[in-house]
Amino acid sequence: MSSVSLVGSKRLSTLVSVLSSGLFRFGPLLPIIIPVLVNLWIGSVDRSAVQLQTWNHTYDYIIVGAGASGSALAYRLAQTKYRILVLEAGGNENYFSEIPALSHVLMKTRMDWQYETEPQSDACLGLVDQRSQWPAGRVLGGSSAMGDMLYANGNPDDYNAWEASGASGWSWDSVKQHFPVEERDDIPPGKSQFDYERELEDMVESKLLVSDSKSRLSRAFLSTGYKLNYSLYKLNTRSKVAFGPPLFTIKNGRRESSAKTYLSGLKTNKNVHIISYAFVKRVVIVNGTATGVEFDRFGAAYLANAKYEIILTAGAINSPAILQHSGIGPRKLLESLNITVVKDLAGVGHNLQDHYGTSLSFVVPKDQSVGNHFKHLDFLEILKYLIYSEGLLAQGPAISVGYINIDSSDSSSSSGGGGTGSQSTAAPNIQLVLRPYGMASDSSLLVKSAIGITDKLWQSYTPYIDGDQFAIDINLLHPDSRGSVRIWSPDPYQSPRIDPRYYSSPMDIQRMIRSVKWLKKFVNSGKFQQHLTVQAIGRPKQCDKYLTNVDKLNECFARHLTLTGHSPIGTCRMGDPTAATTTAEAAAKIVVDTELRVIGVNGLRVADASVMPSHVSGGPYAACTMIANRVADFILAKDKLFLKQVAKLTGDIIASVFQNSALMFVRYNEWTFAEKLLLGNESGLAEISQLAQLVPLFGGGG
Questions:
Q1: Same fold, 44-94+258-351+569-636 and 113-134+180-251+353-484+494-564
Q2: Lowest mean pLDDT, pick from 93-102, 578-587, 596-605
Q3: DSSP secondary-structure letter at 261?
Q4: Which of 534, 149, 254, 223 is nearest to 370 (CA)?
Q5: Is 97 helix (H, G, I), strand (E, B) or coil?
Q6: What is the pLDDT of residues 300-319, one digit of tens each?
Q7: Beta bridge partners of residue 434, listed in sequence order
C-alpha cells in the first residue's frame, strides 16, 4: 500500500471513530432515511438531464425501449450511417441507482413501472391481495438499472430447446458468439482439496465484479456444495449443475447498467437521438406496414416516422401491450375494447413465464455474524463507499449461487451426503441464490413492502428481527406454468393485466416441494453446520397443521411465500410456423418469425425477452443482449449483401482494366470497401482509386 493510501486510511479511521460515537450511530435509521432521499431525488423530474429536447420527424429506425435489448441494439446500429431514434418512458439513472446494495430501495419509485399481478389462486397466499409485486425498470437501462445485476448466459440446452421448438437458427452454436461475456472453465470435483483462496483468486480481474466470496456464509454454502461433489465454477457464465460466486454487472463498485455500457458513448453521435420520458402509446400501421410511433412527453403528443423499421424492445410486459394497443393481438380481445384489428395474432400476450419460487430465511447465533447488509450498515460503511467505492454498499444482493437438477436422482440425494450431483448430465432446473440478509433483516422497512408480505405472515418473522439473518432463494428455472399479459382498456396509460398463473402446473409445485426439502437438508447437514449453526424462521401459522407431513408443510410454505424471479419472458414468442418441429398448438401462438419480424406486418420487429419461446437458466439480461446483437445482424445483412454485390461489381470493373493478379487483390479487399461504405466511411471509394496505384506491386500492369 502506498504512503498516500496509508495516510488516507488513517484519516478515515480517525474520522469514523469520532462520527460513529454517540448520536452518529444512526445505522438502524438508514432503512428509513435512504428511501426518503431516493424518492425525493427521483420524484423531481430533472429535464436538464434529458439527452435531447428536440428531434426529427423521420428516422431510418425507431427503437422503443432502452433496456438491455434496446441499448445494445442502438449501440450496434449507431455504428452505421443510419439515423436512429430511441424512445424511453423513464428518465436517467441517478447516484442511488448506482449503489449495488440498494436494489430494494429503487422499487416503488418513479424508476419502477410498479406492476403487480392479478390475484393468484394457487400461490401468493401470504402476500397482500394474493398479488405478486413485479418491479420493472422505467429508466434508461431498464431493469438493468434497478435489478439484482446477476449475469448468466444460460445453458446450451436452453437454446437448443428453442430451435427444437421451431425457432430455427437459434441453437447454442448459432447464438453463443453474440453474448457480451465469454465462457469460462469449471473446477471439477476431486481435482484437488477445496482451496478457497486459490480457486477463486482470479475472479476480481474480470470486468464483471464477483461477490465477496470469502465471507463465512459464502464459504459454508460453496464448500458444502463442493463436499457434496458438486462442481465449483470460477467465472463461468454458463449455467450448469454447479456452485459458485455470481457474476454481477458491477464495475468499480458501481452498477453497470446497459445504458452505461451501450448508450453513454452515443451522446455525441449525431445520427442517434435518445429521448427519455417518452411514453409510447401505439405503433402506426398503414396498409400492413408500420410507419411510425405515437408517443407522449410531458403532456404533449408526438408522432415519429420510420423510413425502414420500428423495433419494440420494451420488455415482456410492455411490448405485447403496445402491440395490442396498435391492433395486433387476439381478435376477440381487441374487438371487445373497440380497437381496430390490424392483425389477428392469438399469441400476443400469451406464453408468459417467470423464474418464480420461494425463499428460506435463517438466523445465526450472535457470535457467528454473517455480515448482514442491513445490520452492519453504519457510518463507516457509508464513508468507505463514498471514498473508495468499497464495502457492503458495493456488493450485489447475492453472494453465491447454486444450480441443481431436482429431478435427477443424484441431486435428490446429494444433500444427504455422498451424492454426485455434479456428475449429472441434465441441465439445471433449480437456481439457489444465497443472500446476506433475511426477510426481517431490515425490521420490515424495505423488504416487507417490496415483496408485499401480509402482516399475518410477517408475524412469523418478527421474533427474529434482532437476529443476524441470511436467506436462500429457490427459483424454478424452467417452470411449466404459463400465464398472460392482456390490456383491459383502450387507454394505454392503464397498466395491463398480468397473470403468471403461478403453480397452475402440478409439476411446478412438486419440484418446489422437493427443492425446499433438499435445501433444508443441505443447510442442516453437518457439512454446512460445521461453518454455521443456523435455525430456519418464518413458518406461516396456517401451515402448523401440516407439522407431521413434511411434503404438505413445504407445499404450504411455498404457496404462501411465492416470490417472483423478476424474469418475465415469452409473450411475443418467436418461431417458424412451417418448421417440421413446430407443433400446431405452438404455430398458433407464434408472434414473430426467426428474424423477429412480426407475422403479417411489414417494418415491425420485437427484440427483447418477450420473443423467447422458453426460459433460460439464469436471468434474461445476457440473452436479451444476445438477441439485440442478432437483430442488428439481421437488419444489416440485407445491406451487406447489396454492398457486397456492388463491391464485387467494382472489383470486376477494375479487374477488367488490370491483369488477373490485380483481380485477386481486389477480391481480397472488396469486402473491406463494402463494410466501410456501410459504416458511412467515405474513404472506401478513395481506397478503390488508390488500389490502382498498388497494382504494379502485384505484377499487374495497365
A1: no
A2: 578-587
A3: I
A4: 534
A5: helix
A6: 999 999 999 999 999 999 99
A7: 400, 472
The SS3 of residue 205 is helix
- Cβ atoms of 315 and 135 closer than 8 Å: no
3-class secondary-structure state, position 232: strand
Q: Is 188 helix (H, G, I), strand (E, B) or coil?
A: coil
Segment holding 61, helix H or strand E = strand 58-64
* CA-angle at 626, arms to 622 and 628, nearest 5°: 115
Nearest to 521 by CA among 224, 217, 189, 245: 224
Integer angstrom CA distances of residue 315 from 73, 149, 318, 569, 600: 14, 17, 6, 8, 21
For helices 683-694 and 660-678, what crossing angle results, to 10°? 170
Grid coordinates standing for 537? 424462521
Q: Which residues fall within 8 angstroms of residue 652, CB to CB, at 6 or more apart?
A: none
Q: Kindly report, residue by residue over 210-245, the tens digit of the pLDDT.
A: 455 457 788 889 888 888 888 877 655 566 888 888
CATH topology for the 113-134+180-251+353-484+494-564 domain: Glucose Oxidase; domain 3 (3.30.560)
The residue ranges of every structural domain in the chain are: 3-42, 44-94+258-351+569-636, 113-134+180-251+353-484+494-564, 638-698
The torsion defined by the Cα of 609, 231, 564 and 622, in degrees rounded to 10, comes to -20
3-state secondary structure of 20: coil
pLDDT at 241: 86
Q: How confident is the model at residue 169 (pLDDT cuts 50, 70, 90)?
A: very high
Q: Which residue has the cell 418512458?
A: 89
Q: Are strands 231-233 and 242-244 parallel, antiparallel or unpaired?
A: parallel
pTM of the model: 0.83
Cα-based angle 489, 495, 501 (whole degrees, multiple of 5): 100
Give, in words, the CATH class of 44-94+258-351+569-636.
Answer: alpha beta
Higher-pLDDT residue of 378 and 156 is: 156
Phi-psi region of 614 (alpha: psi -120 to 50; beta: other; left: phi over 0): beta
Max CA separation in the chain (angstroms): 96
pLDDT (0 to 100) of residue 371: 60
Cα Rg of the chain (Å, integer)? 27
pLDDT band at 640 (very low <50, low <70, confident <90, very high): low
388 exposed, middle or buried (CB, 10 Å; 0-12, 13-18, 19+)?
middle
